[in-house]
User: Fold this.
Amino acid sequence: MAFSRREKALALLAVIRATMVEIYCSHACWDWKKVGKENTGRAASTVDWLDHADSAMVEILGICHILSRLLQLPTATRARHRATSSLQREADDTLFLASKLYGCMFVRFGRLTDLCEILKEEGLPPNEATRYVDWAWLLHVVFIFKCFRYLFGPQKSFVNG
Assistant:
């Protein structure tokens, strides 16, 4: 069971990586120039797109760094963490740090969403903005509900079956 959980988690990490690449590409090189019309899309904008793409990369790398730190945290939800007061404190400290890291990660997701708003203000079509929001939502869902469930979710103990 443990190996299949790890394999599922690794597959989901690959989805997270691919989605991060797509989000970066949307900031770095998407152009929404209208066919037959001059001065539309990125060319007509006054935004420094290199700086914009760099800002997106900073947020993406920050999310990856936080994800790395979260994945390196020790397990804190096993029955042994309720056996003694010192293990209970260790589990509480670990869960407190995990909640702080989650908060930092969601701040970075918010900043990525703000960067998407700049794209929309500069003329990104609604269908492309929807695609971007879908990618961001996919990251949230995959990360929170699936990846961490497979890595750190409840496990059967030897006592209970």
In short: The chain has four helices and no strands. The chain has one domain: 2-29+47-152. The chain has a mean pLDDT of 80. The first helix runs from residue 2 to 28.
